[in-house]
Amino acid sequence: MNRRGGHIESIVLLEDVSFWRGTEKILKSIDWKTRQGEHWFIMGNNGSGKTTLMEIVMGYVWPQRGSVSVLGRRYGKVYLQDLRQEIGYVSPWIFKRMADYIPVEDIVASGINASVGYYGFISSSLKKKILERLNFFGCEDLLKRKFGTLSSGQQFKIIMSRSLINNPSILILDEPFSLLDIGSRLNMYRYIDLLSKQNGGPQLIMVTHHLDDITSTFTHGLLMQEGRIFQKGTKNKILNTGILAGAFDIPNDVLSAMVASTKQQ
């Protein structure tokens, strides 16, 4: 069920999507559909088109061919700024854009309009939402701290709180854990799992290079190779040694132990 209260057949729907950057074809004939109740991981070598695919879902770049619909609304017939409020986004570049001197409260509030900082009046209702998001991650005591005084794990919780401020229907995690140490990474797996189990919580779409990130939260996977979908389907289908070896062009025996460990999560 989407924010409008109606049932929709798909959350993300890409049909025959291709994208060029100059003369280089970045994405080639992408067909991809996600449904309610699914949580997806996306993997592929650098340059395979993963981030561009997410930018198209966000409406930051426009495909030269094909159609894009998100939450039942087709791009080209919807005001994207409104739709983006229903899509949370976490990426390392967001961390880098946040100045050290910005208070945590303003950073979380900035998720309202996807800005770098929040310069408006923080009403009592917005303050309540900010505290609710921080409380979910157990860090409401950081409200008045400056971003630069926080540990990487604390900063991640603040950026996650920011991404959830609008109660989005989709949460895109683009290599979200790349700046975290192992302890913070394991801690965030737990929060991601809790988030996925919330009633009315968002569909999760995670871009990652690490099999360890593919916890029991995720139900489906998509493998990219040279701008095309190499394989897509259920988690158990994708976490097949032969399929992964083909996608990454590496020997089967290198993957076997890691895949076995991931499937047990």
What does this structure look like?
The protein has 2 domains: 171 residues, Rossmann fold (3-Layer(aba) Sandwich), CATH 3.40.50; 62 residues, no CATH class. The chain has 265 residues and is of the alpha/beta class. It is globular. The strands form 2 sheets. The chain has a 6-stranded mixed sheet, with helices on both faces. Strands 2-1-4-5 form a 4-stranded antiparallel sheet, covered by helices on one side. The protein starts with 11 loop residues before the first strand and ends with a helix. Helix 5 crosses helix 6 and helix 9 packs across helix 10.
Tell how many strands the DSSP assignment holds.
Answer: 10
Q: Which second-level CATH architecture of the largest domain applies?
A: 3-Layer(aba) Sandwich
What percentage of residues falls in helices of 4 or more residues? 25-40%
CATH topology grouping of the largest domain: Rossmann fold
Largest sheet: 6 strands, mixed
The CATH superfamily title of the largest domain: P-loop containing nucleotide triphosphate hydrolases
> Strand fraction band?
15-25%
Overall body shape: globular
Structurally, how many domains make up the residues?
A: 2
Structural class: alpha/beta
What is the spatial order of strands in the main beta sheet?
Answer: 6-7-8-3-9-10
Q: Over all CA atoms, what is the radius of gyration?
A: 19 Å
* Low-pLDDT windows of residues: none
Number of helices: 10
CATH class of the largest domain: Alpha Beta
Mean pLDDT: 90
Order of helices and strands: EEEHEEHEHHHHEHEEEHHH
Task: Give the termini distance in whole angstroms.
Answer: 28 Å
